[in-house]
Amino acid sequence: MRRLLYIIGILGLMSCTKEISIDYHSHDTRYVVEGTINNDGTEIRVSTTNAMEDNTTGSDVNNATVTLTADDGTTATIPFVRNGYYRSKFAGIAGTVYKLDVEVDGQHFTSTSTMQRTPKMNEFKLVWKKMLTERYLFGDLRLQDIPNESNWYFMHIYRNGLGYRWAVMKDDKNPNKELQQLFTFFRDGQHDNDVLQDGDELHIVIRAIDQRAYDYLYSMQQMSSTATNPIDNFTGGCLGYFSANSEIEYYQDFYYRDVTEDDE
């Protein structure tokens, strides 16, 4: 079946997340649209789930018509590239509302998203913290909130090119000031594939997203307890979501000698 990543809390006291894969809950085949427009361009993926009794993976959809329209009237048709992906150099502009239209086999799916301003990272560091009787390695990410507006953020950490941790955050607790996101990595003494090794490359992507995208991603956190799909982000009945976001990237090689100790 078609797989999607969702996030779960590692420790109830921490706003930290871990990536695992689950199946969409769908008795029948359904379309899935996953789309972004950012500073560099547009990428849309169209695929299908398989029915619950079908154990194969979902299928790419290569015959969709994909159109993006800005609130100033600018329209772009996003061309098919390969394997269900549609890509264009059509880049987003902060403050603009974008409407994504996908037509395929007589069905029409629509979603909208507002492009946000570019986020700013103040610091990313690795730190050992003691939780009760155990030491845990954390990634401590600090953002400078975009001033004088409500903001929502989607932060994704990749390890050697593969998804490792991600989280969403809003600025309601500390608006216009520094925001902190703690990612739990692993327990000291743990021995499995989750443990970082010297020389691993960490790639941090920080996206400023709108509330619709935040609400969708936040609802994914509830999937493990509710056994349901995330909230609808599209009209027309497809799964998936569309997000117009500004993003920044940061790279750091991991070495144990660089990890600091938190005595608090």
From TrEMBL:
InterPro entries the UniProt entry points to: DUF4249
Organism field: Xylanibacter ruminicola
Superkingdom classification of source: Bacteria
Protein name: DUF4249 domain-containing protein
